[in-house]
Amino acid sequence: MSTRDVDVLIVGAGPTGLTAAGDIARAGRSVTVLERWPSVNPASRAFAVMARTLEVLDARGLTENLLVHAHRAPGVTIFGGARIDLTHLDSPYRFVMVTPQTNVDAALREYAVAQGADIRRGVEVTGLQQDGDGVSVLTNAGDSWRAKYLIGADGAHSTIRALVGADFPGKTILSSIVLADVKVAHPPAGDGLKVGSTRNSFAFMAPYQRRDDAGSWYRAMTWDRGYQVSDSQPVTDDEIVTVLNQAMDTGPTVLEVRWKSRFHCEERQVTRYRHGRVFLAGDAAHVHSPMGGQGMNTGIQDAANLAWKLDAVLAGAPDTVLDTYHDERHPIAKRVLFQSGMLARAVTLHPRTARGLRNLLAPRLLGIPRVRDAVAGSFAGTTLRYARGRGGHPLVGTRATQIPLTQGRLTQLQRTAPGFVLIRERGAGPIDANGLQQAERADDGPAVLVRPDGYITWAGDSTERSGWDAALARWAGPARIDVGRRGPALGFVVRQLRRRLRGEGRAFGDDVPIVVHPPRNRPQYRYRLSAASVCGNELPAVQVAFDDFQRIVIGWHT
Ligand SMILES: Cc1cc2nc3c(=O)[nH]c(=O)nc-3n(C[C@H](O)[C@H](O)[C@H](O)COP(=O)(O)OP(=O)(O)OC[C@H]3O[C@@H](n4cnc5c(N)ncnc54)[C@H](O)[C@@H]3O)c2cc1C
């Protein structure tokens, strides 16, 4: 039995796994996705894509096309006339995009394949073992795979989670929820998403961008306190129509019901996202109420956070960089669990007095601009931030997407330059920065160093090189040079090495192994650089391997 070897193995071709696969392949790493479904899953669970996810997708060139056939809902009406108003969001996307999850999955699949990810369908992972050098997995077909790292993006019933022995504490919060696509003659008023409820039922309707003379298509969700059955009980059209008529103010006349399914929802989160060389992401790491439309959004952003860190560590960054995946993403999902759970509980409140109070307070609170923007930003993901660390600039940990640039937008720049970006102050000229991507801001803010996932990791004066250089070194490890997509000429490489050695103030005689990561499937050419050719001094000989591919990453460990 032969073992296939890759840099990163991903289990599960849902939105989380596909995002990670595309990003890792884009960084020049070999990545294979193993998916147990032999063909694309036609079931479409998620329908709401939030502003922050749209920004993330835009940095991969996917948002514009998705928006063409999607509905843009400016808000969500919840109860007592209260509304989560998205029209004031600090984002180019002041709405929630309503589109079937199958469309998002398809866009991410195309992205992953275009970047060179290998997606294998009909392959179920059944066994896993890890050691100090990598992870080995076994599949249902008896094949074996080996990778330096593995991402378990295999959904709520994750096999990988079980194989690494991770706990998944939590509980069921709602059962017998019905999801369906319905065509209605008299849709609810307004163009947003709408939740309607009585003491014993609730319904939710989200408009698709599909209508004809007879009516419009909606994604509907219904729940009836008096009809609690197991997920396997078939759904009837009648139960959907009855709850829609009860819960929505203007009973929408249902003309047709298509796809329908019954499910229950749980609130659970793993205690640790990292298990050695195995990482849990998306639904494998956290599940919660679908109310608030957060699951797929959070999974895509988990992947965007993890992928570049894996690339960095594969290129020689310290292993501790990978711990920050848990540190940053666990609190975000914890908060998502809290807010989507709170919304589910508020919608299904039973006591009359509590419901009365809820209907009285919610519209008033959400009418206060600060509360309105805090709630909207939290659901949209635009105000979620990572910790900035002690003494860090207040901007550290926030996203850089909204910084106005003299040319284009950050997400446009990231489509072709997915690494770190140094955004200089207005008027500041380009800095000699070892191939680091740069831009100039068009407003009066400070210079910022932006991570590949769009979050600020340093802010200050761009001429203080030691500041952003140290931030870069913290993530990328010492002396890592990314020469982007320029063809590598030996002279260029030597100049880069010389500059970095001098910049780091290395002493003569330092042991400086140079690690180069040539893209896979390419012939490699090896050049032996003498100490003199690097620094003109007595450093030991180093070896550089690179090929004629457009991208090359150079780094060295001390
Ligand atoms: C009713 C409903 C409505 C929702 N609405 C929204 C919404 O509006 N917005 C939102 O953001 N989220 C929503 N969600 C949540 C969203 O659907 C999920 O969070 C999202 O699909 C999770 O993506 P994932 O890639 O992590 O996992 P999944 O999409 O579950 O993908 C996991 C993949 O792993 C594969 N797999 C599993 N085990 C193995 C194995 N051993 N070997 C190989 N492959 C394996 C599975 O076949 C699957 O394809 C909703 C969920 C539900 C139930």
From TrEMBL:
Domain of life: Bacteria
Keywords (A to Z) from UniProt: FAD, Flavoprotein
Cofactor: FAD
One Gene Ontology term of the molecular function aspect: oxidoreductase activity, acting on paired donors, with incorporation or reduction of molecular oxygen, NAD(P)H as one donor, and incorporation of one atom of oxygen
Transmembrane segments: none
Ranges for domain FAD-binding: 5-337
Classification via InterPro entries: FAD-bd, FAD/NAD-bd_sf, RIFMO-like
PANTHER family: BINDING MONOOXYGENASE, PUTATIVE (JCVI)-RELATED, TRK SYSTEM POTASSIUM UPTAKE PROTEIN
Record's protein name: FAD-dependent oxidoreductase
